[in-house]
Amino acid sequence: GVQVRDDRDDVAALTDSVIRCWNKPHGSFSFQTTEPPQGEVLFELLRIAFLASLTRDEQRSTRFSIIFGSESECVKMAPVFLEFENAPKSIWLTEPKPYDPGQIRRLAPATDPARVFIGVEVGPGGAGLGIWGLLDIGGSWSGFLRHERDAGFVPPDLLAVSSSKPGQLTVSRGGWVIAVLRQGRQTDGSASSPLEHGPVADFFKPSQIACYAEVCSRLNCDRYGDGNDDFPARSYRHVIERLLYRIEDQHHGGTLLLVPESAIDTSLRESAAIKYGISDDRLWVYLVMELAYHQEYFDLDAQLRDRPIVHRQDYSAVSVLGYQRDAIKYRVDDALSFAASLAAIDGAVVMSDRLAIIGYGAEITLREDDVTYIRLAEDVSGDRGDLIPIDSFGTRHRSAFRFCWRVPDSLAFVLSMDGGVRAVRRVGDDVVMWTDVLVRQPLTESFESQ
To answer: For residue 29, what pLDDT is reported?
Structure first.
């Protein structure tokens, strides 16, 4: 059956946030100034979406994406660079359906929310909201946001609402997140990601520096590239994000423990029993190789573009570099798939900050009650937030809290079966948890544009 509850105050606050942020610039990007949906229509659109997010079908949470606009608006508002390459495909229902939680629940299992929107519009004569069909925008944009593709075609510049877990709504416009409702709290799309700033991001800095140095050594240079010097650090972070996305996609839940190499033989061995110990450092090796090939390819390509005549050997050289770069990308992809698959085994996956897999099926052996409360972070710094008793959480979370307390330089990611990724780290005398670290602003740069 369908079990729903309503929380009009949360939906009203989200409605206000969407209206306030509708035309708000995002960094250097500015929207074309338009009017958001009328307040009453927007409220009802969000209210039904919220109720739909709370429904379940055969124990599965209802995951969906909705776009508000007629079929002609959806096609018209999608940017088209090549006539057929990225035009969204609309699929009409022979009979329009009412827009209600039950219909969303029934339609959702047949749609991939990363690429297929449920189309909703105001009925004839303003007679309520109705579902006209589906809009398939393809997988390029989702793949781009997840760092699986080098570029992506943006969705139509219309309001969209998506939900990946009960009670959570993400409102976007043209692919840009403008407002989020999660756990009864409102955030706008300009909020920073813990993976980019704050204590979580700080954990990765030593390894990002080491990665940069190793790539430069391979290229026999002092700097990676003018105007592109932060690219290795961003690529390292993208690997972490891609791994978390892939574990999340398995809908099994899991824990990923990251420790500095210096702590492997001391604090780690004292705090966790690794059932299946392995040593697999290919992800780091492949990432360094990919970054080196990437820079060599674009350096040579830029030089040849300025020449009126390109000799055969130069053309062959850049072609070979392009092939090598693409080939190593596939190896990175395979290494990520392998690492993610290990999370399906009960117990934690343990990796070093150099991306080496140390083992999986790990059990946290700590039983001390040193940690009784954790701080639920309200911002990337983790300085503000409510103190929550750890007894409020399940075994997987409590184990991560104790591990991060005992191994202060560690970082844990805890993934739930319903979706969502939480980061845990000790900050001073507190264990801090950041919720939904992958709910973030879409990127404005692509791999190919570097």
So the answer is: 60
Measured between alpha carbons, how far is residue 206 from residues 49, 136, 259, 356, 379 in Å?
42, 42, 12, 15, 23
How many C-beta atoms lie closer than 10 Å to residue 310's C-beta? Answer: 12
Find how far residue 50's CA is from the centre of its chain: 21
Sign of CA dihedral 84, 449, 150, 114: negative
Judge whether 379 and 389 are in contact, CB under 8 Å. Answer: no
Tens of pLDDT, residues 290-315: 999 988 888 877 777 777 776 778 77
CA distances from 74 to 109, 114, 389 (A): 22, 16, 47
Say what the alpha-carbon torsion angle 351, 352, 356, 357 is, to the nearest 10 degrees. -20
Per-residue pLDDT tens for 414-447?
998 766 799 999 999 999 999 878 865 443 333 3
Q: How many Å is the maximal CA-CA distance in the chain?
A: 72
Q: Are 48 and 64 in contact (CB under 8 A)?
A: no
> Which residues sit opposite 423 in a β-bridge?
413, 434
In this predicted model, what pLDDT tens digit does every residue of 340-373 receive, in sequence order? 999 999 999 999 999 999 999 999 887 666 788 9
Distance CA 164, CA 111 (A): 13
Q: How many angstroms from the chain centroid is the CA of residue 217?
A: 31
